[in-house]
Automatic annotation (TrEMBL):
<dbReference type="InterPro" id="IPR036291">
    <property type="entry name" value="NAD(P)-bd_dom_sf"/>
</dbReference>
<protein>
    <submittedName>
        <fullName>NAD(P)-binding protein</fullName>
    </submittedName>
</protein>
<dbReference type="InterPro" id="IPR002347">
    <property type="entry name" value="SDR_fam"/>
</dbReference>
<dbReference type="InterPro" id="IPR052184">
    <property type="entry name" value="SDR_enzymes"/>
</dbReference>
<dbReference type="GO" id="GO:0016616">
    <property type="term" value="F:oxidoreductase activity, acting on the CH-OH group of donors, NAD or NADP as acceptor"/>
</dbReference>
<dbReference type="Pfam" id="PF00106">
    <property type="entry name" value="adh_short"/>
</dbReference>
Amino acid sequence: MPVWLVTGTSQGIGLELTKQLAKNDANTVIATCRAPARATGLAGLAAARVNVHIVALDVLSNASVHSALSAAQTILGERGVDYLINNAGIGHRVGNNTTTAEMLELMFQTHIVVALRVFPNGIRR
Ligand SMILES: NC(=O)c1ccc[n+]([C@@H]2O[C@H](COP(=O)([O-])OP(=O)(O)OC[C@H]3O[C@@H](n4cnc5c(N)ncnc54)[C@H](OP(=O)(O)O)[C@@H]3O)[C@@H](O)[C@H]2O)c1
């Protein structure tokens, strides 16, 4: 009965991954996204599949990571997360004229620093 926690599931690859994982009834998917109220495709999936649970999570915020893990714990009870798919990300073609220091910093925070923010907290059995 594997438990998956996927970040950034409001759209794109994260939503599709969640759909594919949900097809297997043995999987439990904690599908996280920044703004559940705006994630209508994900909400539709969770309404149709009992093994999909939506939890709010902004990977840039320690407080959000902690409250998401606490919400996941309430859903999972004694079970822990078996697989963490840290999919959340932002697309930006680095090197074109619109690249700014702020954008680079945001990308670094979202794609690199997140490994330390979410992973050590997320995989705890
Ligand atoms: N598509 C590609 O060709 C490609 C290539 C290489 C790598 N990737 C990587 O694959 C991943 C998914 O790509 P995609 O094409 O599916 O991108 P996408 O359609 O833009 O989706 C990105 C997802 O990440 C979420 N997200 C962004 N910042 C977040 C944050 N701070 N906290 C939580 N969620 C956040 C977005 O949520 P919101 O809806 O709240 O914005 C969205 O659900 C990304 O990490 C991307 O860098 C993609």
